[in-house]
């Protein structure tokens, strides 16, 4: 079977893990610090914090939206909506609920499978506490256009909602040449085993400013300042936090895998470019849109196909793993109260499917995938 996912673990990871073992520092020790420093250099944003998984990073991000923190103006009553799409990993939407906020679904653009910015612009109101978007499959949302929509909303309502970008699929994605994590928003990344960059499990949050960065560093560990004098118990916790720290073994994997991730990313993109050529014009199949300056990480390769179930059967029989990947979240019972018609997603949901595109595909593999699809289903 040609797989959809594979763990990208550098052979150097084992040696770095052995160094952690012999150091005796396992949790938030120097290896986590070194990993964060390396991430700052690569991402280009000094305000970032490593955490134990991407879901934790989402919970921190939504905490910032729900609760402005000690000493800040409280969130006005009734400003409790997060505009979000149901086409994402459940973690993003459940972090909204965990913080006492409500979901207001925004439609999905059937061309890109990402948030429909026209529908978003219609739904922003004084009740909007935050906007939660995902660079789905690695394809970037047009953050420049979003910023103009927010300028208009701010002029109209006197309030600019916090934007949370889920970059879990989008390690290395750039928009008009600028890497994600640098657009003035709160961003989260996942270093789960199957993501481009992996720590086994791990994650990171990037922040737009020093104040949010300092706050997140406290919230990540129960609200306790790590520099406090705990020997004499002379410390105060200004606001309660979580236990979301990364451990040093995970950070050692992350450091090792930073050395291989660029080459892997290059191969995802090369395979995607190959499919773009080979699959264009195939009957019963449509590629997703590609806009200039939108440089996807192609963590997944999305397709729209007619008779999707037959397509999936044919591919599976041919030894090629394919997936629908997620169920649209608005159909889950847990969030049934938020359901609204979403014509864009309704129209394309039955055609969505993903095929293998990763660094592990040989030239023969990808040629076989393209040939199998071109033969029809
Ligand atoms: C992987 C993923 C996350 C985070 O997952 P963790 O396993 O908690 O690291 C968040 N959002 C999306 C879209 C993901 O694919």
Helix and strand arrangement:
Blueprint: H1 13-23, H2 30-43, E1 48-51, H3 54-66, E2 81-84, H4 90-98, E3 102-105, H5 117-123, E4 128-134, H6 143-157, E5 162-166, E6 174-175, E7 178-179, E8 186-190, E9 203-206, H7 210-219, H8 248-258, H9 261-279, E10 285-287, E11 294-295, E12 301-305, H10 308-317, H11 343-348, E13 352-355, H12 363-374
Parallel strand pairs: 2-3, 2-4, 4-5, 5-8
Antiparallel strand pairs: 1-9, 6-7, 6-11, 8-9, 10-12, 12-13
Bound molecules: pyridoxal-5'-phosphate.
Residues 53-55, 88-89, 91-92, 134, 166, 168-169, 190, 192, 195, 203 line the site of pyridoxal-5'-phosphate (PLP).
Q: Which range best describes the helical content: under 10%, 10-25%, 25-40%, 40-55%, 55-70% or over 70%?
A: 25-40%
Low-confidence stretches: none
CATH topology group of the largest domain: Aspartate Aminotransferase, domain 2
Strand order of the largest sheet: 1-9-8-5-4-2-3
Bound molecules: pyridoxal-5'-phosphate
**How does the overall form come out from the CA principal axes?**
globular
Specify the biggest β-sheet: 7 strands, mixed
Total number of helical segments? Answer: 12
How many separate domains? 2
Oligomer: single chain
Q: Looking at this structure, what is the CATH superfamily of the largest domain?
A: Type I PLP-dependent aspartate aminotransferase-like (Major domain)
Element string (H = helix, E = strand): HHEHEHEHEHEEEEEHHHEEEHHEH
Number of DSSP strand runs = 13
Keywords: Aminotransferase, Pyridoxal phosphate, Transferase
InterPro entries: DegT/StrS_aminotransferase, PyrdxlP-dep_Trfase, PyrdxlP-dep_Trfase_major, PyrdxlP-dep_Trfase_small
GO biological process, one term: polysaccharide biosynthetic process
Protein name: Aminotransferase DegT
């Amino acid at each position: 079977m040609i797989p959809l996912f594979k763990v990208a673990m550098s052979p150097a990871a084992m040696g770095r893990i052995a160094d952690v073992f012999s150091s005796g520092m396992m949790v938030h020790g120097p290896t986590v610090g070194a990993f964060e420093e390396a991430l700052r250099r690569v991402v280009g944003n000094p305000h970032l914090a490593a955490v134990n998984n991407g879901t934790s990073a989402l919970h921190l991000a939504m905490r910032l939206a729900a609760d402005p923190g000690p000493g800040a103006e409280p969130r006005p009553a009734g400003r409790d909506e997060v505009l979000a799409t149901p086409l994402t990993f459940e973690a993003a939407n459940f972090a909204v609920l965990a913080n006492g906020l409500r979901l207001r679904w925004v439609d999905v653009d059937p061309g890109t499978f990402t948030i429909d910015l026209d529908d978003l612009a219609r739904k922003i109101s004084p009740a909007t506490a935050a906007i939660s978007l995902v660079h789905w499959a690695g394809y970037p949302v047009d953050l420049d256009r979003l910023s103009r929509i927010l300028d208009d909303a701010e002029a109209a309502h006197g309030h600019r909602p916090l934007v949370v970008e889920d970059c879990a699929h989008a390690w290395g994605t750039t928009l008009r040449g600028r890497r994600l994590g640098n657009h003035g928003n709160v961003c989260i990344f996942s270093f789960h085993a199957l993501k481009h960059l992996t720590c086994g499990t791990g994650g990171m949050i990037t922040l737009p400013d020093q104040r949010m960065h300092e706050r997140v560093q406290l919230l990540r560990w129960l609200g306790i300042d790590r520099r406090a004098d705990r020997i004499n118990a002379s410390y105060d916790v200004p606001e309660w936090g979580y236990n979301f720290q990364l451990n040093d073994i995970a950070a050692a994997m992350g450091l090792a895998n930073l050395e291989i991730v660029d080459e892997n990313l290059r191969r995802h993109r090369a395979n995607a470019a190959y499919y773009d050529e080979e699959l264009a014009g195939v009957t019963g199949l449509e590629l997703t849109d590609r806009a200039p300056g939108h440089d996807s990480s192609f963590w997944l390769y999305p397709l729209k196909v007619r008779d999707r179930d037959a397509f999936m059967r044919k591919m599976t029989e041919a030894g090629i793993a394919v997936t629908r990947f997620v169920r649209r979240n608005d159909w889950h019972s847990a969030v049934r109260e938020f359901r609204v018609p979403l014509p864009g997603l309704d129209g394309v949901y039955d055609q969505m499917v993903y095929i293998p595109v990763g660094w592990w595909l040989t030239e023969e593999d990808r040629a076989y995938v393209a040939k199998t699809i071109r033969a029809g289903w």
